[in-house]
Specification:
The structure holds 2 protein chains of 2 kinds.
Chain A lengths: L6 H10 L4 E2 H7 L4 H13 L3 E6 L2 E6 L1 H28 L2
Antiparallel strand pairs in A: 1-3, 2-3
Chain B lengths: L8 E7 L3 H9 L2 H4 L11 E6 L6 E6 L4 E11 L3 E6 L15 E11 L2 E9 L11 H6 L6 H11 L1
The chains are: A alpha+beta, B alpha+beta.
Chain lengths: 94, 158
């Protein structure tokens, strides 16, 4: 999780929760320079948290669905365990 | 602007019990089955509680006597359906704003006189995300964790 150790990068990831953006959008919204934004995006891409794609003359950056998938996976495991315990309780106390 | 959505988690389990009994164990008997590991308070969990009405609180009672809210009953329709708001935010704290909470929808479907399928859907994870207006605030905070990102990080570290 080193990629998220920097608060600007965490804020970029939060911004991407609202949809894909260009470097220009981020530079306008954030109190940091455009080259700095590019550098942060590079780190996030290396960590597979963010993916990019061309959009006309610019590039759009968005959250890598596989990254957010980790959250789903957590709840997948959690609810499997919880419902198994629920089944035991429901079948015991009749 | 398009919002990133996260696919819901869907689970189901069939139990040898009537829908009425299954609903009762899920709600009144919540403490008998809720995993002890899943608790947002600092002290260990003494009792897990769902208040049995629409608008009721979902909370954990810690052994030190403190109560930690984590949700609200959105739909109370015994013995058919229960919908809970999952109000957990950054660093596993309580999120008072329902608009920033995900939802857990639980349906109790009779499959016979003594058999019930319980279908659970946990959805709207994206609501835990921070809104665009809080970007600067997030950047300027000493430790800008919030919303979905904190949950994501916690999940990835487990």
């Amino acid at each position: 999780m080193d990629a998220l150790s920097d608060r600007t990068r965490r804020a970029i990831v939060e911004r991407l929760l609202n949809g894909p953006v260009s470097v220009g959008d981020l530079a306008r919204d954030f109190p940091v320079s455009r080259p700095a934004i590019s550098q942060h995006l590079k780190v996030l891409k290396r960590a597979h948290l963010v993916i990019d794609r061309p959009d006309g003359t610019r590039r759009l950056y968005e959250l890598n669905p596989a990254g957010v998938e980790a959250l789903r996976q957590y709840f997948e495991r959690f609810w499997s365990e919880a419902l198994a315990q629920f089944k035991v309780a429901a079948e015991k106390r009749k | 602007m398009a919002t990133t959505t996260v696919a819901p988690v869907r689970k189901s389990v069939s139990v040898h019990a009537s829908a009425a009994h299954a609903f009762k164990v899920y709600t009144e008997g919540f403490d008998t089955w809720w995993p002890r590991t899943h608790h947002i308070g600092k002290a260990p969990l003494e009792k897990a509680v769902i208040e049995l009405r629409a608008g009721g609180r979902c909370y954990g009672l810690s052994i030190d006597g403190t109560e930690c809210d984590w949700g609200t009953v959105l739909v109370w329709d015994p013995p058919h359906r229960l919908v809970l708001a999952w109000q957990i935010t950054h660093e596993w704290g309580y999120e008072p704003d329902l608009a920033k909470a995900s939802e857990v929808d639980i349906r109790f479907i009779p499959e016979g006189p003594d058999m019930t399928r319980v279908e659970l859907e946990h959805r709207h994870f994206e609501r835990h995300g921070a809104g665009g207006e809080s970007i600067r605030e997030a950047v300027n905070k000493p430790d800008g964790w919030s919303g979905l990102l904190a949950l994501f990080a916690a999940a990835a570290e487990k």
